[in-house]
Structure formats: C-alpha cells, structure tokens
Amino acid sequence: MSPRRKFRVSIYAQLVFWTSVILILLMSGVLFLIQRREVQAIYQEKRNRGLVMIRYIAEMNARRLALWDLESIDENISGLVRDDLAYVIFYDRDGRPVVISENIAGNSEVINRTNCAGSVSPEAIFYHNFKLEINGLIHEVMEIEIPVFVPGSDTKWGSVKIGLKLDDVFQRIYQTRLVLMGFGLIILVLTVFGANILARRITRPILNLVEGTKQISRGDFSYRIPVISSDEVGELTRSFNEMAEQLYVARQKMEETNRRLVQAEKLASIGRLSATIAHEIRNPLTSVKLNIQKLAENEQLDKVEREHLAIAQEGIEQIEKFIKELLTFTRATVLNLDYFSMEEILEESLKILQPALNEKKVVLKKNLGKDLPLVYVDGDKLRQVFLNVLRNALEAVEEGGEIEISLELNRGRPEPQLEIRISDNGCGIPPKDWENIFDPFFTTKSSGAGLGLANARRILEQHGGSIKVVEKEGPGSCFLITLPYQSPAKEKLS
C-alpha cells in the first residue's frame, strides 16, 4: 500500500491563520479589559449617584428624625420613590424600622435587615446587591445604608436605607457590550484583511522564487523574478536573478561552443571530402578542359557544335569555381591584422559591386557615420565578408530595389564594438532559416554552393565578432555584423 499523503497547508494559509489568531486573542483581551473597566465605571457612577441621593434624604430628614416627626418623613419619602429609587426605610438608633415606603411594606426580610444597629461611624456606608420582586417583576437592586447624625451632635439618631434599581445600569452595560462587540467585529474583519495583505506580501516573493526555480529546472534561463521588496527576500530574489543570468550566459557559451565543435567536425569532414575531390576530380577535369579547348580551336566546326562546346566550357568553369570555394572554406587561414578604416573597406566592396548595382538600378543608402576610429582587422578578409553579404542583398532585391548600409560605434556596452547593418527590401529570409543560412552548403537560392555566409561567419569569429539576421520594419532582411573595438593604446598593452 502506498503511504498516505500528508495534508498540505500552504505558508499563506498558515500566516493568515496564526496572524489572525494572535491579533484576535490580543484584541479580545484588550476589549475584555475595556468592558470590565466600563462596567466598573457604570457601577461606580450608580453608587456615587445613590450616595448623593441617600445623603440628601438623610440631611433633609435628620432633624425630623431627631424630633420624631415620622409623619413628615413619610410624606417626604413618598414623593421620592419613583423611577430607579425602589424604596426608602428609616431606622431608629436601635435598628428598628420606623418609616417604610409603601411598595416595600410587605417584605420583612428587606425591612428588618440593617447594618447600622448599634454604634457606627458617621462616615460609614454599607452596600448590598440582591434581587427583589417589585410589582410582580424581578429587579436587581443596589441597597445603600448610612447612619443619620444631626449636625453639631455626635449622637446617632438612626439610619436611612435606600434601594436603587439597576435596570438602567444593565441597559448601559448591554449597550456598552454591543458597541464593543461591533468594534470587535470591525477589528476581526480588519485583522483578517490585514493578515491577508501581510501574508500575500510575504508569500508572493516566495511563490515567485518557486516559479523561478520551476522555470530554471525546465531550462528557461532567461526567466527573471520581479524584485518587489527591499528586505531579505528581495535580496534573495536579486541573488536568484544573478544566478539565472550567470546560468543563461554559461548556457549561451556552451551552445556557442557546441556549435563551433559541430562546425569544426563539419569542416573536418568537408576537408577530407575536399582533398578527395581535389585529387579525384581536378586532374581528369583538367584533361577534359584542355581537350575541349583543343576542339574549340578547330575551324571546321559549325556554329551549333561551337555552342555546345561553349556550354561544356561554362560547366567546367562552374565546377572549378565550386572546388576553389570549397578548398578556400576548408583551408586554415591566418589573419594579417593591421589598422584599417572600416568606411574605406565598405567603400571598396561597393566599388567592386557598383556595375551590378547600376545594371539592376538598385538605390543605395549609406549612413557610415563620421570620425570613426581605425580598427585592428584583416582588411582583405573583411572585404570578402562584405562582398558576400552585399551579393546576397543584390540577388534578393528586384530591379529598382533598395539596399541600406549603416556603420556606427556602440559605446553602450561593457566593451565598445562596431556595428554594421546591411538591409534590403527584397524577398526576405524566413525566420526559421535565420540560423541555418550560416551552415555550409545551406542555400535558399537555385544556384550557389551555400558557402558564402558560412565563410563570412568563420572570418568574423576569427576576429572575435559575429553576424546574424535581425528583425527590420517592412519587407526584406537585415544582417547585423559586430566587431570588437580596441583603442590603439589598449592594443599595445595587450
């Protein structure tokens, strides 16, 4: 049996859950303390209000109690018992009830309970909370009792006790709790929302890193992770991008090395083939050529026979040209480096092709820049490169077509380099063949050996440069040739 797969909880969910739990517990504790203090404050306010009320009743009736004018006391308290004042009871100095409000007259337990019997301090205050049935309803009552002293006398004449209904207190406590619950609900929503934002901010770079590692594992070394923070995760993201860049460069170098190895193997095979061709074909071909020339010198040949001999001579010349190109491509060349003006090399190449350009009425546009520095190259080899590329452009355009040449020094790179662009408005090259056209014997034309561009790339790579097809606006193709530039002073140091 396969092992059970453990339930997986994402970091995002864990962060949201635990952040929310911690903040909710913290705010619950704060709200509990606030609620507790509010309840204490409400009760204290009720006590203070009741204390003011009972002292007012005691002062107002102290002399009447001393004069034993109980009827006047009863009249006074009968008008006071209303709203939250449940009852008023006066006791004599021995703790016997002498004046009782009507609504409590039948409750002997409340009437006979006093804390001021005997000797008590004038500042004594007694509190007692209990449930009391009034008019068939149960009320929570706060009972307050204080002794009664006549001003200027140390003799206690009795005591007074009142009962305050706590209905308004509970109502205020209920409202306070509702407000705190609403406040707590808002805090809960804000906490979950804030936890989501915090978790997203923390986990988003991590998810980007995970996606980056997946892309790298699939071989996409060009993938880069957006840096969205400046903290440790942001630093990790930058380090990951630097690693991906190094892997990308290393992969390009490896691919270029592999391409050159394949190219070297091809050249080695072509070299062996060329040696065989030169040995097996050249000598018999020379004999055939000499014999045709001998026959062509015969004056007895008619016009048709001479035309057939001319066609044969032309075919032999094409074979010789192919063998010559093949041997030139496979032969190891040594560069004769010196300082040359790139503008002059391009102009010399154009002079060679000028008759063909004029015959086809090609419009030539040049943007060769000014005051460009001399470059350390093999002038003859580069002239051959430009001729090969320009011939391709000339063959691609229709009569009256357009060829544009631009030359500039790009200093926006770590190492400055010359960039030569040769573009045309001809039939163009399919994007799928942009790399294949530099392979030996690959050609999209009906004639030709397919060695011109391959030879051009080999020469440029010997110079440390490159050639490739790039996109352009409109029809046609554009070849970008790059050559590294070193100042004369730096060349001497190297």
Structure in words:
Mean pLDDT is 81; it is low at 489-494. With 494 residues, this protein is an alpha+beta fold. The relative contact order is 0.06. The strands form three sheets. The protein has a five-stranded antiparallel β-sheet with strand order 2-1-5-4-3. The chain has a five-stranded mixed β-sheet with strand order 7-9-10-12-11. The protein has a two-stranded antiparallel ribbon with strand order 6-8. The chain contains eleven helices and twelve strands. 54% of the residues lie in helices and 17% in strands. It folds into three domains: 13-174, Beta-Lactamase, CATH 3.30.450; 281-332; 333-493, Heat Shock Protein 90 (2-Layer Sandwich). A hairpin with a 2-residue loop joins strand 3 and strand 4 (137-149).
